[in-house]
Write a structure and sequence with these properties.
The protein is mostly beta strands and 147 residues long. It contains two helices and eight strands; from the N terminus they run E-E-E-H-E-E-E-E-E-H. The longest helix has 4 residues. It is globular and about 45 Å long.
Length: 147
């Protein structure tokens, strides 16, 4: 029997800007949490995929990817359609303004208006894996994210 337990997740900010010039606007009470982030080149951003938070989407367990791949379980994809619509992106940090609560980033695949759940500094010693395995259909995607 499937049981659900509620969790209290709050937004610490929102994505703003244009699709090619995104930034995170952090709420005033969380701005002190930005201290030291500017010393990093990259961060991990957890965000709420609010467009797919409806129960219709959250019950989906398998999808047919839009790229050349077989039908897959959502846990084997990066689909926004999933039981908990949480996005994760490693983004480059352009600048951090702690006082104003603005973090300019590159490489974020969220849209303006997207709620930001958390930001974590990127540590290569903990966040990078030397030897990985991917399915044949994803083998040609490259070894590293674009700069």
């Amino acid at each position: 029997m499937l049981t659900t337990e509620p969790y209290n997740v709050i937004s610490v900010g929102v994505v703003s800007g244009s699709q090619h010039n995104l930034r995170l606007e952090i709420k005033p009470q969380f701005r002190p949490a930005l201290k030291g982030l500017a010393d990093f080149s990259h961060c991990q951003i957890l965000w709420w995929i609010h467009e797919f938070a409806d129960d219709t989407f959250r019950g989906t367990t398998q999808i047919e990817p839009p790229y050349d791949a077989p039908v897959s379980g959502v846990f084997a994809t990066r689909s926004p359609v999933r039981p908990n619509p949480i996005g994760l992106t490693v983004a480059g940090i352009v600048s951090v303004d702690v006082e104003e609560g603005i973090v300019e980033v590159t490489g974020l695949d969220a849209y303006p208006g997207t709620p930001v759940l958390d930001i974590k500094a990127y540590f290569p010693s903990a966040d990078r894996v030397r030897h990985v395995r991917v399915p044949v259909w994803a083998a040609s995607w490259g070894e590293w994210a674009p700069e």
